[in-house]
């Protein structure tokens, strides 16, 4: 059965008297605006989020850079401190080393000077004898077999007298060695006069007596041109000895020059 006819019969109304209009549902007035507003809010929200995120990223990046710079500065500071410490350490050791070496050198120089001075002034002193015995510095004596006739001897004394090989000085003044040599012995008599024995070789010596002043000591080197003493008056004597301490008399004196007998 047709539904419309059934309905008309039920209400007893003709079909033409009833018309049905279907209205379209009204759209909300603010729906579009709301969506637009919502869309705008979402955009603002997203923009704010992006800005916040960007600011956070910049802050984090700045913090990272700051931490990195701080860490780098700390490392540089530590490295500089380590370098300074390393640079200081060798310097201290170097100073200590230089100080130790300087003390050692000073001690050696002082000891050497002391030995030289004592050797020059006191050649037979205990310290020189000790060092020569310990360090083997005892000078080995080389045999000198020259005899008196091998020497050219002069007498720079002025007027002299010769008697059996003994030369007597008739004037006061300086006393000289007749040839180069070394002081063998030096003694002082009861009269206050000195007697000096000078070695020229193992077989030739010069003895000088009557010296009021002696300028050299035992072991000193002497030269024929340098005075070895002084006599205040006449009477000083000079004579020559051989290796047996016998007076050599086989010579004459001419113009202050000793002429050995053939």
Number of strands: 12
H/E topology pattern: HHHEEEEEEEEEEEE
Can you name the CATH architecture of the largest domain?
A: Distorted Sandwich
Overall helicity: 40-55%
Q: What is the count of structural domains?
A: 3
Rg of Cα set:
65 Å
Give a quick summary of the entry.
With 262 residues, this protein is α+β, with helices and mostly antiparallel strands.
Task: Describe what you observe in this structure.
With 262 residues, the chain is of the alpha+beta class. The chain folds into 3 domains: 30-86; 102-140, no CATH class; 148-252, Distorted Sandwich (Glucose Permease (Domain IIA)), CATH 2.70.70. Helices cover 42% and strands 23% of the residues. The chain is built from 3 helices and 12 strands. It has helices spanning 3-11, 31-121, 126-135, and strands spanning 160-163, 166-169, 173-176, 181-188, 194-201, 204-211, 213-214, 221-222, 227-231, 237-242, 251-254, 257-260. The strands form 3 sheets. It has a 7-stranded antiparallel β-sheet with strand order 1-2-10-6-5-4-8, with no helix packed on it. The longest helix has 91 residues, at 31-121. The radius of gyration is 65 Å and the shape is rod-shaped. The chain starts with a helix and ends with a strand. The relative contact order is 0.08. The model has no long low-confidence stretch (mean pLDDT 76).
Helix-strand layout with pairing:
Layout: H1 3-11, H2 31-121, H3 126-135, E1 160-163, E2 166-169, E3 173-176, E4 181-188, E5 194-201, E6 204-211, E7 213-214, E8 221-222, E9 227-231, E10 237-242, E11 251-254, E12 257-260
Antiparallel strand pairs: 1-2, 2-10, 3-9, 4-5, 4-8, 5-6, 6-10, 7-9, 11-12
């Amino acid at each position: 059965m047709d539904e419309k006819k059934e309905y008309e019969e039920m209400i007893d109304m003709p079909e033409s008297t009833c018309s049905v209009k279907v209205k379209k549902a009204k759209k909300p007035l603010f729906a579009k605006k709301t969506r637009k507003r919502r869309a705008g809010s979402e955009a603002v929200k997203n923009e704010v989020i992006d800005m916040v995120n960007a600011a956070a990223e910049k802050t984090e990046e700045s913090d990272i850079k700051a931490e990195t710079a701080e860490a780098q500065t700390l490392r540089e500071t530590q490295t500089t401190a380590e370098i300074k410490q390393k640079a200081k350490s060798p310097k201290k050791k170097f100073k200590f080393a230089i100080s130790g070496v300087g003390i050692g050198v000073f001690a050696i120089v002082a000891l050497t000077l002391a030995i030289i001075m004592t050797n020059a002034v006191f050649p037979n002193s205990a310290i020189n004898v000790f060092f020569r015995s310990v360090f083997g510095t005892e000078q080995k004596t080389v045999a000198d077999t020259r005899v008196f006739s091998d020497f050219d001897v002069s007498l720079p004394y002025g007027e002299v007298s010769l008697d059996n090989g003994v030369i007597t000085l008739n004037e006061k003044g300086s006393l000289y060695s007749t040839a180069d040599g070394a002081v063998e012995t030096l003694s002082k008599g009861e009269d206050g006069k000195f007697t000096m024995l000078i070695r020229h070789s193992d077989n030739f010596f010069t003895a000088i007596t009557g010296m009021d002043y002696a300028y050299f000591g035992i072991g000193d080197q002497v030269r024929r041109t340098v005075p070895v003493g002084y006599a205040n008056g006449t009477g000083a004597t000079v004579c020559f000895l051989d290796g047996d301490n016998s007076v050599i008399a086989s010579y004459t004196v001419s113009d202050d020059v000793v002429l050995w007998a053939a």
